[in-house]
Amino acid sequence: MADLGCQTISPGGPHLAGTWRVAHFAAGQQAASDGRRYAPGVPAALHACYDRLELHADADAETVKLAYRRMARRYHPDLNTSPDATAQMQAINEAYERIMERLEGQQKP
Q1: Which of 16, 33, 39, 78 is 20 to 30 A from 56 (CA-CA)?
Q2: Do 53 and 88 belong together in one domain?
């Protein structure tokens, strides 16, 4: 069951009078509601890596490779003229390497 919170606000405008109640998810529930739940075995340091590649934390190596290629086509400096394309690509490369190191470490006996 989701944890809901409620905030009471009083908007200050001629067309918005009265007191309003605004519901919101508790912080932990909101983070999980975007569809990217992190398995208990995934280190917190890798959460940003999975987000960078737009992946769920339970993605297998093949899914990670496909996501990496998709992001590389989007942000590679030879294809993207954005001034921050190089930095974006470096971050994508680092995320890919860190995730693959974790996955390869899980496969070793």
Answers
A1: 78
A2: yes
